[in-house]
Design goal:
CATH topology of the largest domain: Alpha-D-Glucose-1,6-Bisphosphate, Chain A, domain 3
Strand order of the largest sheet: 1-5-4-2-3-6
Radius of gyration: 22 Å
Strand content: 15-25%
Bound molecules: magnesium ion
Oligomer: single chain
């Protein structure tokens, strides 16, 4: 049986490999999994094909006797929060998150708001490929889809409940928000205004042809850097397509990698949430800065595989203060165990207000590394062999090998891991200086070139 789900749902180019026909069959498969009478809520972002796909999924769900609720355009974390808080049996989100605009995707969400585990996906795949759908007799198919209109407002209110609104309001922040021409425009400006923030938006209209790539990274946000400094904003922020991720720009127009902003937030939460476990879960791709800052405060840092679903499920199992990835996905369990853009923004504003500081000053209080990220094209087998080879050569060093191999040294660290989705070996190096990082990288590249 071939595989339908990737690392985060089903993804494909709309009308090429992700068609309404695929979505219909997937709707039938998801409906077969949850079973007749289940309450399932469907939402979508504003990508090309989102409505076509959500209607096809709904059609399949109805055919299996599902009670379908439709949330309309909404960020993924807003739908996830609604599912958990309102007691739905599950949900389906139509989005391809940060992928290029021609992509769309379908992800299944469980009753706790977290994306389906690999085990659940396998059951759904089995229905999909075997075509043994659990359709119901004609008399049990509903001729109704229940419209839900308050998902976005409910989410914003939920976020506001968890922060000190007065403290943030008194600071009178000015923020530039880059909304990626997608559904964050339905929630983030509203959240900011509720916090008395003067908000300026760029890429704020919803369009399935966004002005920038939906992935918020160092390269894609040049407009935001300019606007933040031009208007003298306190900070800038940028979402991905479905607004579960957010990255920050300091008041000087500098991009802050997600693991660095998350480290600041985690350090703040240790003081703020004394009732929470002193434990943080993050992916091996995050910087060792996380450990350098949090360990002295008595925080246990758990490194795990790259992938937000694994982080979420691990956090839920062991209990955690927060969890995150370096791409701007931050999870705050008091709100929900999933990446949560709006919650992250509210916490960041509260932190800056409480500490009476700016983002660049806050950042100067944690160690700085020079980062180099690169990738070497190769097939998966060779990529795994490379990891073994690197492990062999660096066997005397402190390392972990839960996902590729991550080596820790006094003045540098690096991660070499096979990509989960592409025929690539990913290499991340951070050194205390540019020179150190470049030296380590060139040693690694030499090894990769020579190696089998
Ligand atoms: Mg996303």
């Amino acid at each position: 049986m071939s595989r339908l789900f990737g690392t985060d749902g089903v993804r494909g180019v709309f009308n090429v490999d992700l068609t309404p026909e695929v979505a219909l069959k997937l709707g039938l498969a998801i409906g077969s999994y949850f079973g007749s009478g289940s309450r399932i809520i469907v939402g979508n972002d504003f990508r090309a094909g989102s409505l076509s796909l959500s209607n096809a999924v709904i059609s399949g769900l109805l055919s299996c006797g599902i009670r379908v609720y439709y949330a309309g355009f909404t960020p993924t974390p807003a739908l996830q929060y609604y599912i958990k808080e309102k007691g739905f049996d599950g949900g389906v989100m139509i989005t391809a998150s940060h992928n290029p605009p021609q992509y769309n995707g379908i992800k299944v969400i469980m009753d706790d708001g977290i994306e389906a585990s690999r085990e659940v996906e396998k059951v759904i795949e089995d229905y999909y490929f075997s075509l043994r759908f659990k359709r119901v007799k004609w008399r049990y198919v509903l001729n109704q889809v229940y419209s839900v209109h308050d998902v976005n407002d409910f989410y914003v209110r939920g976020v506001l409940k968890l922060v000190d609104k007065d403290l943030i309001s008194k600071r009178g922040f000015k923020v530039v928000a880059d909304l990626a021409n997608n559904v964050s425009s339905l929630t983030t400006p509203k959240l900011l205004r509720e916090l008395s923030v003067k908000v300026l938006t760029i890429n704020g209209d919803m369009s399935h042809e966004p002005y920038r790539t939906p992935e918020p990274n160092r390269e894609s946000l040049s407009d935001l850097y300019k606007v933040v400094t031009a208007v003298g904003a306190d900070l800038g922020l940028a979402h991905d397509g479905d607004a579960d991720r957010v990255v920050f720009i300091d008041e000087l127009g500098n991009f802050i990698p997600g693991d660095y902003s998350a480290t600041l937030l985690a350090r703040y939460l240790v003081e703020r949430d004394r009732d929470s476990p002193k434990r943080v879960v993050t992916a091996v791709s995050s910087s060792v800065v996380v450990e350098e800052v949090l360990k002295p405060l008595g925080v246990e840092v758990i490194w795990t595989k790259v992938g937000s679903i694994g982080i979420a499920r691990l956090m839920k199992r062991v209990g955690a203060l927060c969890g995150f990835e370096e791409n701007g996905g931050f999870m705050y369990p008091k709100h929900q165990y999933v990446r949560d853009g709006a919650m992250t923004i509210a916490l960041m504003l509260e932190y800056l207000a409480k500490e009476k500081t700016t983002l660049s000053k806050a950042l100067s209080t944690i160690p700085k590394y020079y980062l180099i990220k690169t990738k070497v094209p190769m097939d998966r087998e060779r990529a795994f062999r490379m990891v073994e080879k690197v492990k062999e050569v660096y066997s005397k060093h402190k390392y972990i090998d839960i996902d590729g191999v991550k080596v820790f040294e006094k003045d540098y660290w690096f991660l070499v891991r096979p990509s989960g989705t592409e025929p690539l070996l990913r290499v991340i190096v951070e050194g205390r200086t540019k020179g150190i990082a470049e030296k380590v990288l060139s040693e690694l590249m030499k090894l990769i070139k020579e190696g089998g």
